[in-house]
Input
Amino acid sequence: MTPPGLVANRSPMNILLVGSGGREHALAWKIAQSPLVGRLVCAPGNPGLAQVAEVRPVSATDVDGQVALAREIGADLVVVGPESALEAGLADALAALDIPCFGASARAARIETSKAFMKAFASRHDLPTAAFGVFEDAGAAKAYLADQPAPYVIKADGLAAGKGVVIAADRPEAEAAIDACLDGRFGAAGARVVIEDFMAGEEISLFALSDGETAVLFGAAQDHKRAFDGDQGPNTGGMGAYAPPPALTAELESAARARLIDPAVRGLAAEDSPYRGVLYAGLMLTPGGPRLVEFNARFGDPECQVLMMRLNGDIVPYLLAAARGGLAALPAPAWRDDAVICVVLAATGYPEAPRTGSVIGLPKGDLPEGVEIFHAGTARRADGALIAAGGRVLNVCARGRTLGEARDRAYAVVDRIAWPEGFHRRDIGWRALTTAPPT
Ligand code: GLY
Output
């Protein structure tokens, strides 16, 4: 498929992919399969990314460094993975040089980078979401709690590396979370606190691409946010994901599109913030229909990993059309019939204090067809050994004809990884599975 505006026989594209996580490894794996691509560079990358792309040591938030790299390689497209790079203004800097960028401007990315902005935007455009209050003063925030039923949802306004949300069971816990936020635990990101009504239901991650005018649905997945089996333990960035999520029926998906995605894309354009990139809607499936938990200006991680394994065909035309316009001219993305599951392996101590530096033994020999290991926080020691270098470290993803088969194939490979200092959940996919997990 040739993207609109590209001549079929033009020279291969040079693509710069920004980021270093499992999400970026999965994106790079998919992009590298495109016949449109000549050169794929990833910065800063990781040892897994180095197997599918040229890796360069430029931080994701080093806007000048990333722009210089894009110019050096003659990038036809820059794909931005993490929201921190968007907040730093990378898409704006690239736009000033007319370099197509899959990623939102800093102004449009406020949909994620400021929860207070996101909630006010949802109110202005009548998007179904939880009632809320925004406070800079701890006394006023605590007074607001008096009229609200428990549990309480307390969020730092800005980006807090996935640690800025507390679901407090009672008033003392909620008040402690308010104090911690406003006392500077998150720096400027915690200068305001958002308090929301709690929404009960099943949470789904729904993705759409937008070129500023048109939105195209781009898959859905269910994440597992708690660290331990049975949805116990602290909140994390995500310990596993699966797709498709049966809880999101076609009817609910079209309701989410009509009530949330399309109005958000129209609303951002009307507010002089046309949205280019991927819009990730965290949805709560409530008895009254899908309601917005949050928007993010990036692919979810590990949701992206399962989406890339299910996507049938070339991703590059979609990324390019979102960056340059023309999404409406592309066919709807096609998905494999298979189910896909992703199991995250994390370093002991994650999310509070992951212990890094331990050596990881990956399975020897080829992986089974339809199984991939995407790297996140890994590094190479001077002697070449693969070591843990972050909280979430590896993602084992597997396809199967059923979710149960995908699950069994994924855990069979997880069990071949020699890494006693890591941990993982054994119950990924439990909401949609009817058979017991392997022990
Ligand atoms: N897995 C949740 C997120 O990416 O925010």
Observations:
- The radius of gyration is 21 Å.
